[in-house]
Sequence to fold (261 residues):
Amino acid sequence: MKAITASRMFIFIIAVFTMSLMVGCAGMEKGPDYRGPYSYYPPALVDADRSLDEARTAGKDKACPAEFDAAKDMVDKAYQVYLACHTQEAIDMANEAMGKIKALCPAKPVADMKPEPKPQPVPPPPPPPIVERHQELAARVVDRLTIHVNFDFDKSNVKKTDDAELQKAIDFVRKYPGAKVELAGYTDGIGTEQYNQKLSERRAEAVKQYLINVGAVDKATITAKGYGKSSPIAPNKKENGKDNTEGRAENRRVEILIINE
Fold:
């Protein structure tokens, strides 16, 4: 009798374990083996990988290599963001990459011999709120300092290796005791607007907390804001369309602004 009871209990445990695996993978798809460490990922990431393979099979990696590499980089980054536990941002990034993959190597339009009408001047659209805020802020800046802090991927913690750059920030704000200070964070051009906006905010806030902690500025006089990838100071792409590593590094920055009240 005890043997039968133990056998039933073992079968019950196996059944519960199997059901938990099925529930955990619900709504997920098996990804390529090289992606690791997981076997299953959100469908958007797997679809982006599949589209990338189809584009490669169609020869688009040779026909338009710069655009293909940019789309591939975005798919790779989507997986990295997912592994960093930012699932929705990873899905948004994968969907954006899908759009880029579908637009690879568009067919050349047939030349129309008819004379084209002269285009009518179109007034520029109003700037988005983040640009308006940036322009309004620039008018009140008394002095500024740009620092480049080497944050790890998807991280906002200040590292020991950046002591020299951060010392510049400490010396700069101490020249203006009691002044209002704003930290403006920026990112490079890779990734979605939403992802880069949040990342720039976290990084500006990290530098703010560092300056407060070392006693360089009073917390009542300093604020931190993020501007995402809205105002690059260097091209993210070279003239030939390839990735500009140096330019993107310049754009990943924090600006320290002394504000006139």
